[in-house]
Prior knowledge:
Layout: E1 12-18, E2 27-33, H1 51-64, E3 67-73, H2 75-81, H3 83-97, E4 104-108, E5 120-123, H4 131-154, H5 160-163, H6 169-178, H7 193-198
Parallel strand pairs: 1-4, 4-5
Antiparallel strand pairs: 1-2, 2-3
Helix pairs in contact: 1-4, 2-3
Amino acid sequence: MLKAFYNKGLIEAGCDEAGRGCLAGPVFAAAVILPPEFSHPLLNDSKKLNVRTREILRNVIESEALSYAVAAADVEEIDQINILNASILAMHRAVDKLSQKPEFLLVDGNRFKPIGEIPHACIVRGDGIYASIAAASILAKTYRDEHMGILHEQYPSYAWNKNKGYPTREHRIAILNAGACEHHRRSFRLLDDQMSLAFS
């Protein structure tokens, strides 16, 4: 079972992002405040769950959370301020959108910038430890996957409905054949050296 809280008695928001390692599309982030008694047997790090389970949990989280919000940083912002800062920016935006002000933030990972006076703790692999971070990971992942499905309709050759913008071999071959589009992150290495040599 995941831990319900870091500081008992405080209103805690779990924060996580999705899409940091992708070659295309925005980075999404979510912030979630769960009821103190919240528990669900399927809740876990979104990366350990299949699509159907993530969708089930998304509905549960959106129904039962005291407050939740999802936000993004776009490709231009990623290229301008780098992916780490863009991920933090997206998390800040999600926290700012919460209808209830948190007293403490639980952030997945090891880097964050404070939001005003709200104290925080960075938890490495926190999405597999704390329920609120796991919930945030699920919302960030499902909202981003949904967004990449919409972008796929615009650019079907990249198969974003399957790879979601991650650097799969198929995605990189599509970039090689069709070139990059406006949704690709120009600050990322879109083709690895071996592939560039093989097709040169």
